[in-house]
Design a protein that fits this description.
Elements lengths: L1 H11 L4 H30 L3 H29 L1
Helix pairs in contact: 1-2
Length: about 80
């Protein structure tokens, strides 16, 4: 999903080559290393505790909301 967004931004704003390189590298790291490591860490931390999983879920949703606000700000600055 994120890859297609980056490609669309790059087509719309060809002068953003450096940002595109940064985002492409970020996507690569998340998919190859960081994502799987984060999942293992989360499983170890939460274990079988439903409360821990609920808190992790709530934290993830808050982080996603913050990320949306960040990228909305980036988009506003580029417009």
């Amino acid at each position: 999903m994120f890859t297609s967004i980056v490609a669309n931004v790059a087509r719309a704003q060809p002068g953003l080559a450096t940002l595109r390189l940064y985002l492409d590298r970020h996507i690569e790291l998340d998919g190859d290393k960081h994502g799987p490591l984060a999942m293992r860490m989360l499983a170890q931390l939460c274990g079988d505790d439903e409360r821990n999983w609920q808190e992790a879920t709530e934290s993830a949703l808050a982080a996603l909301d913050a990320r949306v606000k960040l990228w909305d700000g980036v988009l506003a600055a580029l417009s």
